[in-house]
Amino acid sequence: METCTEIIVVSTRQQGQSALEILAAAVPAAGRGYLRQLFKKGRVRCDGQVLAADALLQAGQQLQLAGSARLAELLAAPRQAAEAAGVPVLYESAELLVVDKPAGLAVHGGAEQTDHLVGRVQTLMTQRGERFAVAPIHRLDRATSGPVLLGKGRKACGELGRLFLRQQVEKCYLALVQGRTAPTGELASLLPAKGKLKEARCGFQALRRSEQASLLQIDLQTGRQHQIRRQLAAAGHPLFGDARYGGPCPPALPRLFLHCSRLAFVDPFSGAPLIFDSPLPAELRVFAETLLGAPLP
C-alpha cells in the first residue's frame, strides 16, 4: 500500500553528491541494493523528472520519493533504535539532530559521569556506521529536560554555533517558582562566567499564579550557566525542586521544575524553519496542577 511521498532536501553539505549517496544518508537503514531498485523503478524524482542514481545534485534541490509501507519502516528504524538506546530523536538531517533530553541525564560526561547524552548519541551514530563526531551546540543542566541540538562534524557544529552567537535561536522554558510573581517581567543582571562578569537577560510571562507559586514561560535571551535558576532566586522566586538556590523541595516533586518547552531556528543548511515544541513532562504537569488547583493551558 502506497503512503505519502517523502521529500528530501539537498543540503549545502551534500552539494555535488550523487542522488544515491544523498538517499543513503536519508535512509541509513536501507541497503544500497534496495535504494538502486528504487531508482531503476522510477520511484525517485527531482523537479518532477525521474532521477538516475548517479545524478549529481545541488543544494536546495528536492528529491521526491514515492512512499510505501517498507520505506516507512526503514525511515522509522533509526528513530526506533535511538529511542531504545534512551535517545529520543525529534529531528535529524545530514548535518544536525535534535534529541529530547530527559531530566537527570548530563549532556557531557565527567570523571564520575560515564552515562551522558553525547555518549549515547555517539554510540548510536557508530552503530549506524556514521564516522563523524557529534557535539552539542548548547547545553541544558543535568536536572533540566527538553530538546538539545547537536551538530554532525566540525563544519556543521561551526555553522550551528554561529546561530547562537548571533542570537538567532528561540529558547523558551517552563518553570514553577515560589510565590506570586508579576504578570510579566524582564530580568537582567551580571553573572560570573569563565572568570568574567557577563550580561544575562531573560523575559517571563506568568501562565498561572497563586500565593504559593507561579508557572512562568521564560524567553531566554542569553545562555549563562544556571541563569534562570540564579536570576529567579535572586528576584525572590526560586524554582521548586531547586535546593541549590533555596527553592522548596516537597516530597511530591521528584526533580527540578525546569523544562525547555521550545527550541526554534532556521536550518542554516536547508533554509527551512525548524520549531520543536516539547510538552511539559507528566510528573511536572501533575505537580503544578495539584499545587495551583487548576488545569494548565
UniProtKB/TrEMBL annotation:
Keywords: RNA-binding. Belongs to the pseudouridine synthase RluA family. Pfam families: PseudoU_synth_2. Gene3D superfamilies: Pseudouridine synthase (3.30.2350.10). GO terms for molecular function: catalytic activity, acting on RNA; pseudouridine synthase activity; RNA binding. Residues 96-234 form the Pseudouridine synthase RsuA/RluA-like domain. It comes from Desulfuromonas thiophila. InterPro entries: PsdUridine_synth_cat_dom_sf, PsdUridine_synth_RsuA/RluA, RluA_PseudoU_synthase. GO terms for biological process: enzyme-directed rRNA pseudouridine synthesis. Signal peptide: none annotated. This is 23S rRNA pseudouridine955/2504/2580 synthase.
